[in-house]
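Q: Joint fold for the lines below.
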Amino acid sequence: MDRKTVPRVVIIGAGFGGLIAARKLATSAVQVTLIDRRNYHTFQPLLYQVATAGLSPGEIAAPIRWILRGRSNVRILMGEVEDVDVSRRVVRLVDADIPYDYLIVAAGASHAYFGHDEWEPFAPGLKTIEDALEIRRRVLLAFELAERQAAESGEQVQLNFVVVGGGPTGVELAGTLAEIARRALVNEFHSIDPERTRILLLEGGPRVLPAYPEDLSRSAGEQLRHLGVEVHTSAMVTGIEPAAVITSQTRLPAAVILWAAGVAASPLGKKLGAPVDRAGRVLVNPDLSLPGHPEVFVIGDLASLKDKNGNPLPGLAPVAMQQGKATAKNIERELRGNPRQNFHYLDKGSLATIGRAAAVAQFGKVHISGFLAWLSWLFVHILFLIGFRNRIIVLIQWAWAYFTYERGARLITGSTQLPSWNQLQSEEHNQTVGRKSA
Amino acid sequence: MDRKTVPRVVIIGAGFGGLIAARKLATSAVQVTLIDRRNYHTFQPLLYQVATAGLSPGEIAAPIRWILRGRSNVRILMGEVEDVDVSRRVVRLVDADIPYDYLIVAAGASHAYFGHDEWEPFAPGLKTIEDALEIRRRVLLAFELAERQAAESGEQVQLNFVVVGGGPTGVELAGTLAEIARRALVNEFHSIDPERTRILLLEGGPRVLPAYPEDLSRSAGEQLRHLGVEVHTSAMVTGIEPAAVITSQTRLPAAVILWAAGVAASPLGKKLGAPVDRAGRVLVNPDLSLPGHPEVFVIGDLASLKDKNGNPLPGLAPVAMQQGKATAKNIERELRGNPRQNFHYLDKGSLATIGRAAAVAQFGKVHISGFLAWLSWLFVHILFLIGFRNRIIVLIQWAWAYFTYERGARLITGSTQLPSWNQLQSEEHNQTVGRKSA
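A: Joint structure:
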């Protein structure tokens, strides 16, 4: 086949949406180029397990080249996309221009601080493997610091872990931190009692998991409290300092602050030239194409589309995966001379884990809580994890953790020096020390 | 029991020697304080597996507190030892002084560049988890860079990986890199052929594995060549530049340079005030005590002691473990009023792995090579790995890798930008970019 006549499809981003689109197009008569700044796909739903030392990065990530190995029409480029020139139909990397006939933009989202980027060093968010390792470092170092201080002074400082944001990520982080403090570290410290750690979850709205039905939110709140988390709703954060969170009501001293309160779409969205919503998501056509540019599609967390009831589609893996598949199909249809179809999200249910044997699940009108919801969560996440080996290993890690309360990856990497409490909040410390000792 | 009358044993370093000593003393009437700059014990014999993307850090390391959990007379302090004041019997940390009645110094060794510390950025060594991740980053990035360059220019650059040093670490790194290039990456690249990567192993002496009998060295060399490694003996490295290794014969361009040519004992050795050998190891008494200070013991890679034939004991885990045990026993003996015993190393054999189904082993006069030696190596390393869960998971990873040639942890973490070939050699790049993107 003449290479020049084969349509070139470029996909930006190897998250759930981009990867599914690439897989689907691998059997079509197109030349696919998948661009990602990483060499691996991250299974984001389990990132919190890396942040809380339950799993190692390699267990929830898989090399993109390996996932798409043997697909002779899929080329993978590791690189950072700087811009897209929709008029010239070219994707701009730092060091190369990649032309396309079709473009699928699946660049995702990152955490956002609502105009307070100065909070980031004190309250890291959780979107990448590096974020997860930094959170793990801070959490584990906090216990070590407290132990050292108590050994010298004879008094235990109050360890507060504050999680800002009561959505799924905040809930799973808070629940798992409670398990670490209450169970995983028992019998390991002499001068402090890790059980005296306070885990606080701050949610600005009236209830946790606001996207879920009210009864499940209520249940999630109860399950969190049962695990030992102090849940504060209607708690608006007005400031974050090196070791404190300020809300409209109070000032909370905090050894570790985690940010799970907001996401913003990739800045690439704005560069496409079409209108975006407040979070920077591109307002796409019903077939996920960019207004004015039918050859460009935007999918996943970067796309803003409403379902048939007028509610915006949530930023979830199933949405991105269905969109990736639908877009690949529309490109195939068009190449065969058939008309495109509009995207309709099929909601198969949603699951949020809270901690050990604690979760909520919604399958249509069926709402379940607790152990059964947690088992469903486990099953679905093992099923969708990429790579059979990762599935086996994660299953073993979880079974082990369930029966022993141990967590498999409790390593403090990066810094080799104990920081002060204020230094603990700063990545700067980690990197300076890392460099010095290197 | 009155706390003040209980002898205080301080152990510096939670490597093989320090850990065994702490475990043994946990059942004695002493108060043990174990100090390490890390919160985890690293199973060093498998570090090369992390460097070559076969295992994740969490799979070969275990938290020290967890290993020694429930031992009520063993206190663990995470901290960096600055100095030891043997006259005042105090260990100095940055922020605290720890007094002792007995001291066991097990601070180990690091890699050394024979007075050429300026080579380190271009040729990292392998002693810590961070070292391993940096090596992994460079190796994987080199293939990505070559692919990008070939996609643009249409020509494949020659990828050379140069390993300096033909001891056990150099041999296992070179053998495993060959497997990655020849097998693990097949079918994953479109513009380059990873099999065309050259793996060069440079050894200054006349044969690889110089500490092994000659027939095993010869066999190791053959097994390396069979795996695709170019072995150069009597190749003295005289210079290392950003992307080249200079030997007395030639100048080798190199995408990745790894240093496995020398170790130096921890600088703590010199601070003890007793004579040290050229590598900085303390010349200890036959009972492993510090000359002039019977209450101080030096064990493991930091100690220099000769066996009954007058040969220096090698820097191996079994030596450190036997010394840790012997020292704990001597302290117990002395506290019961019995005389100390001199240390004698019981050589149960040695094993060096080379790669897939390739290894050499020496058990007394029995020398074996190839698959059987490799199986023995696997068995011993699974057996000594700490933590039952880690054993299961490493076993699964290895079984999987054996049958599929896949490697489980092929993630490039740290930098999100492709460096230039020269930048690839510099950790600075990794950290600068990491900070920018954080």
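Q: Anything notable?
A: Residues 353 and 359 of chain A are 4 Å apart (CA to CA). Chain A touches chain B through 66 residues (CB under 8 Å).
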